[in-house]
Amino acid sequence: QLQLVESGGGLVQPGGSLRLSCAASGLTSDYYYIGWFRQAPGKEREGVSCISGVGSRTAYLDSVKGRFTISRDNAKNTVLLQMNSLKPEDTAVYYCAAHGTTIRDMCGMQTWQYEYWGQGTQVTVSS
């Protein structure tokens, strides 16, 4: 059973940076694409970024393009989300998710594309 553990959330001032980490264990599929999602109070969970199994393809929510960067280190089974120039509207619980696949160069930004989820980490952007 694949397990995902997020870390790196916290309180940061507007304009600041945080780096979220998603550590995976129990891998059994050829490839996993990983997505980062977030959910603010009263809102639906939305896809923030995703990365393909070998890191060749990435995607971003329009509102985070140029500010967030996703990367992965398959040797360490870890996916990072570097978040810069944070804004109050980035405040949410952030989740990483994984989907096992035989396709190495795709990823998805929809919640229904993922069967494994972490427990989430809170990111609060406030002065």
Commentary on this structure:
With 127 residues, the chain is mostly beta strands. It is built from no helices and eleven strands. It has strands spanning 3-7, 10-12, 18-25, 31-39, 46-51, 58-60, 68-73, 78-83, 92-101, 116-117, 121-125. The strands form two sheets. Strands 2, 4, 5, 6, 9, 10 and 11 form a seven-stranded mixed β-sheet that branches. Strand 5 and strand 6 form a beta hairpin. The mean pLDDT is 95.
Overall mean confidence score, pLDDT:
95
Low-confidence stretches: none
Radius of gyration: 14 Å
Mass-distribution shape: globular
| Helix/strand/pairing category | mainly beta
User: What is the H/E order?
Assistant: EEEEEEEEEEE
- Total helical elements: 0
Distance between the termini: 40 Å
User: Could you estimate the helical fraction of the residues in percent?
Assistant: under 10%
Total DSSP E strands: 11
Strand % is: over 45%
Counting copies of identical and different chains, the oligomeric state is single chain
Largest sheet: 7 strands, mixed
